[in-house]
Amino acid sequence: MTQPHEVEILLVEDNPSDAELTLRALKQRNLANQVFVCHDGAEALDFFFGDGSHALREIGVVPKVILLDLKLPKVDGLEVLRRLKEEARTKSIPVVVLTSSREEPDIARAYRLGANSYIVKPVDFEAFARAVSDVGLYWLLLNHPPR
Amino acid sequence: MTRRSWNWSIERKLPLLFSILLLAVVLVMLGAAYQQVRHAALAFATGRLKRIAKTYADALPLDAANRRKQSAAMAADPGVQEFVMSGGTRGRDWVLAAMRRIAPDTSTTTVIEVWDTAGHRLILRGDSALHSDSAAVQPLDSTAVGPYRVRHDTLMYVEVQAAVRQGNEGRVIGRIVQVRRAVLSKRSRELMMGIAGGDVAVLIGNADGAPWTDLEHLIPAPPADARKSTEPTLYQRGEAKVGIAGTVAGTPWMFMVELSREQLLAPSLVYLRSMSLIAVLIVVVGAIGAWWVSRRITDPLRHLTTAAAAIAGGDLEQRVNVLGTDELGRLGQSFNVMASEVKRSREDLEAKVVERTHALRDSEARLRSVTETAHDAIIAADADGNISYWNPGAAHMFGYAVGEVVGRPLTLLMPERYQEDHRRGIRRYVDTAEARVVGRTVELHGRRKDGGEFPLELSLAAARTAAGTSFTGVIRDITERKRIELALRETNAELEAFSYSVSHDLRAPLRAIHGFARILLEDHGPKLDPEAKRVLSVIDENTRRMGQLIDDLLSFSRLGRKELETARVDMAELVRQVVDETRRNAGARALEITVGSLPPARGDRNMLRQAVTNLLDNAAKFTRKREPGRIEVGYQANGAEPVYYVKDNGAGFDPRYASKLFGVFQRLHRAEEFEGTGVGLAIVQRVVTRHGGRVWAEGKLDAGATFYFTLPGVSAV
After folding, report:
1. Distance, CA of B646 to CA of B21 (rounded, Å)
2. Taking the CB of residue B624, how many other CB atoms lie within 10 A of it?
3. What are the chain B neighbours of A102 within 8 Å (beta carbons)?
4. Residue A128 touches partner B, C-beta closer than 8 Å
5. What is the mean pLDDT of chain B?
6. Alpha carbon distance B208, B254 (integer Å)
7. pTM for the structure as a whole
8. Which long-range contacts (C-beta less than 8 Å, at least 24 apart) are formed by B12-15?
9. What pLDDT, in 10s, does the model give residues B371-403?
10. Averaged over B438-460, what is the pLDDT?
C-alpha cells in the first residue's frame, strides 16, 4: 500500500473507472507507485486540512502534483481548487484540472482560480492515457515547484 | 396719413400728369421760340443801326466840308488878303460883304472873325459874346474844323481856321475863324430824324469826350468803350441802350446812333405775350382732354373695382356691364368670366370640403374605433407634456378614467426616477428637435393609479404643426413578456446545465467502455478468439464515434447560445492560419490549396474561424481519394453581395440532396467511405446565419463541390 509520505501524485476522481484508467495510464509510465486517490472533494480537502476523517493523511506531506476532476460529489472540484490556492501551504502545488467538460466557463474559471493545466479527458483510451501520463511526467520530472 | 395725400386715384393722376407734361412741352417750345424771335429782333436792329450809321457817316462831313470850302474861298479873296496885310485898315467894307456872303444869318453862324498872325482880331461880325479866343485859334497853315465847345451854355463849334496868305502861295499873314452854333434847324432835325426813323436817337460830340448833344440838348458823353466801337454795344444811358459809333470825316467829331433796348425787344415781348396766351389755352384744353380720357378709362375701372370688392365681400353674383370691344371691354369680359370661374371654384371647393369633411369624419371614426378598442394605451400630449388624449386602453392599463388625467402632466404616469429626464427630454425636443425617444421604441416603467409599477414599451411620435408640437405615445404593458423572457433565460440556464451534465456524464461511461475494451484486448488478447476480437474492435470504433458525436453536438449547441463578439476580421489572415493547419493534418498526402485575395469581414473571429476550419476539413476529407486533391479558397465580387467560396475537386454530391447538406446529422456519404458526424456543415450554416449571411453549395457527384457563403458588411476589394 502506498505510504502517504511517499505521495507524489494526488488523484481526485470520483469515477472508479476513470480512476482505474488513469492509474493504468500512469502505471505504463511507471508513475503509479506514489499515487494516492481521493474519491470526492471532501476527502481531498481532508487530505490537506485534516479534520480527522482521513486516517492515512499526515500533515506536512505534500504531493508534487494534483490531478483534479471538476465534477465531484460533496465538494466540487473548483471549490477544492479555490481552497488549495488560498492556503499558503498548498498554493504552490501544481494542479492539473482533469475533466470531461469542455464547457468554456469551467476552463476560464479554473485558470482564474490558479489551475496550472487543463486536460479534457478524451473518450479515446489511448489519447486519454497519453494525455494523463504526459501531464504526470511533466509535473513530476520537469517541473520543480519551490520548496 | 401724409402718404394718403399722394395716394390719388388714376382719375386724378392721369390728367395731372398729362397737364404737367403738356405744360413742360409748351414752356420749352415757348422759350425756344422767344429766343429765336429775340435773336431776330436784335439782328434786325443791328442791321438797321449799321445802315443808319453809314448814312450819317456819309452825310455829316458834307456841311463841314462846305464851310471849309467857303472859308478857304474867302481867304483866297485878294481884298481880304489886302485887308489883313494893311492891319485891318483897308478894304473893311469888302471884308464885311464877304463875311455876309458866308454867314448871312447870325442865328447859326454866331461869329466870323479875321485874325492876323500876331494874335490880333482885325474884324468881327456877329455876337461878340460868343467870339473865339486866341487859344482856340490854332496856328495852322491850312483849313481845319475844330472840336465842339460849350460857350455860355450854347454848343458851338469852331469852324475853319482858314489861313490867309500873302498872295496865294505866299506866307501866312492871318486867319479867318468862324464860330458856329451847333443847333440844327427844325427842318434839318426832321431830316436827320427822318433818315434814322423816329425811334433811333442820334448823338454827336467830340471823339475824345464832352461835350455831346442829342441835337436838342447838351448831354453827357456816352461811355468811352461805346464811343470807340463800330459794332452794336450795350450800355447804360438813362436806360439800357444799344448803339453804334461813327467818325465824321475831316473833323474831330463822332456820332452815335442808338436804340432803347426795351424798344428793340418790344416786338419779341409782344410775341411772347401772345404766344403765352396760346400756351395757356393749349394746356387748359389738354388738361380737359386728359381728364375726359381718364374718366373714360377709370369709369369702367371703378365699376370693376366695385365689382371686385363685392366679390371679395362674398357676392359672387356680381358682374360688370361690358361696353365696347376695346381693351376695357375685353377686361370687363375677362372679369365676368373670372367671376364665373371664382363662383364655380368656390362651389367646387365647398363640395370638396363637404366631401373631405365626410371622409375625415369617417377616417376619424375608424381611427377612433381603433384607438378606443386598442388593447395598448394610446396617449397624446401637448408641448408642455400635458395629456390631451387618453384611450380606454390607457384607462385600463393605468387605472385612471379619462376625466381624471386629461390636462394633467404625463409625469403622473411615471415613477419619480423618470420624471426629471422626461421633463428635460420634452424641453429639449421642443427647443431643438433633438430626439432621443421620439421616433423610437424604448422600454421603461409606468406607474398605475394605485402606485404599482409595471414594465412597459413606449413608441413615441411627435408632430410639429402650426398649433405647436404634440406627442403621441403607444404604450404596451410588457409585464407578461418580461415574465416570459425571464422564464426563457431560466430555461436557457437549465439547458446549459443540462448540456454540461451531458458532456461530463455521458462521456465518462463511454470512456470506461472504450478504456476497458482496450484493456481486455491488450491484457487478454491472446486468450480471445478472432470473433471476440472483432466484436471488441466494433465496441472500440463505436464508442470513439459516440464521443465525437457528443463533442460535435455540444459545440453546435454552444454556437446557438454564445453571444457574437463582433469586430473586424482579416479573412485573408484567418484563412491562411486554417490552411496551414489543414496542410499539417493532411501530412504527406498530395493536397494543393490556393487562396485568392479576400476582403476583411465584420464578425466573431472565433466563430468564423470554426466555420472556415469546418469547410476546409470537409474539402480535405472529400478530396482524400484525389491525387492531387485541389482546394481553392476565394472570393467573388458578386454585385452588392460579395461571396466567399471554398471549392474542391473531391467526391462532390448529388445536387438533388443539396438542401440536406447543412442539416444536423445529415450525411450524404456512408461512414465507410468518409467518416464524420454530420455536424460540421451544420455548424458552418449556424455561424453564417448568425452573422446574417447565407450559405449554399453547388456540386455534382464525383465532380467536386463548391461551398459559398456571404457575410454582411463586406465591401468588395
Report:
1. 97
2. 15
3. 503, 551, 554-555
4. yes
5. 81
6. 9
7. 0.42
8. B14/B290, B14/B291, B14/B293, B14/B294, B14/B297, B14/B298, B15/B287, B15/B290, B15/B291, B15/B294
9. 888 888 999 998 888 998 898 888 989 999 888
10. 88
Per-residue cell: B635 = 472570393
Interface contact A18, partner B, CB < 8 A: yes
Strands (E) located in B4-57:
none
Closest CA to A105 of B503, B547, B604: B503
* Out of A100, A102, A125, closest to residue B508 by CB: A100
**pLDDT higher than 60, residue B2:** no
Measured distance CA(B410)–CA(B383) in Å, rounded: 11
d(CA B246, CA B310): 87
Q: Which one, of A105, A1, A2, lies nearest residue A63 by Cα? A: A2
Question: If you write DSSP's letter for every residue of B436-474 in order, what string do you get?
Answer: SSTTSEEEEEEE-TTS-EEEEEEEEEEEEETTEEEEEEE
Dist. CA B228–CA B666, nearest whole Å: 144
CA angle, B514 then B520 then B521, to 5° = 90
Q: Is B221 left (phi over 0), alpha (psi -120 to 50) or beta?
A: beta
Which residues are CB-contacts of B169 (< 8 A; sequence separation ≥ 6)?
Answer: none
Q: State pLDDT tens for residues B120-175.
A: 777 777 766 656 555 555 555 567 777 777 766 666 666 666 777 776 667 777 77
User: How many Å apart are CA A126 and CA A133, to the nearest integer?
Assistant: 11
Round the CA-based radius of gyration of chain A to a whole number and report it: 14
Task: Name the residue facing A17 among B512, B518, B554 (closest C-beta).
Answer: B512
Per the CB < 8 A criterion, the answer to whether B571 and B598 are in contact is yes
CB contact at 8 A, B413 and B450: no
Residues 6 or more apart whose CB falls under 8 angstroms from that of A98 comprise A13, A22, A67, A68, A69, A119, A121, A132, A135
Residue B585: what residue type?
N
Is B408 exposed, middle or buried (CB count within 10 Å of its CB: 0-12, 13-18, 19+)?
A: middle
Distances (CA, A) of B421 to B414, B415, B416, B474: 11, 11, 10, 19
Peptide bond into B211 cis (omega under 30): yes
ipTM: 0.75
CB A118 within 8 A of CB A111: yes
Helix segments in B120-260, DSSP class H: 186-196, 224-228
d(CA B207, CA B324): 83
Question: Which positions in chain B touch A122 (Cβ < 8 Å)?
Answer: 511, 547
Asked if the C-beta of A103 comes within 8 angstroms of chain B's C-beta atoms, the answer is yes
Summarize pLDDT for B664-714 with one digit per residue, the tens: 777 777 766 777 777 888 889 989 988 888 899 888 888 889 999 998 776
Q: How confident is the model at residue B632 (pLDDT cuts 50, 70, 90)?
A: very high
Alpha-carbon span B424 to A88, nearest angstrom = 57
pLDDT the model gives residue A1: 39
Pairing, β A117-120 against β A95-99: parallel
Name B109's bridge partners.
Answer: B180
Instruction: Give tens-digit pLDDT for A45-79.
Output: 888 876 655 545 555 567 888 888 887 877 888 88
Nearest CA in chain A to B550: A123
Instruction: Name residues whose C-beta falls within 8 Å of residue A100's C-beta, 6 or more positions apart in sequence.
Output: A71, A120, A121, B503, B504, B505, B507, B508, B511
Instruction: Round to whole Å and give the CA distance between B317 and B330.
Output: 19
CA–CA separation, B656 and B588 (whole Å): 34
Task: Strands of chain A (E only): list them.
Answer: 9-12, 35-38, 65-68, 95-99, 117-120
What span, in angstroms and rounded, lies between the C-alpha atoms of B443 and B455? 7
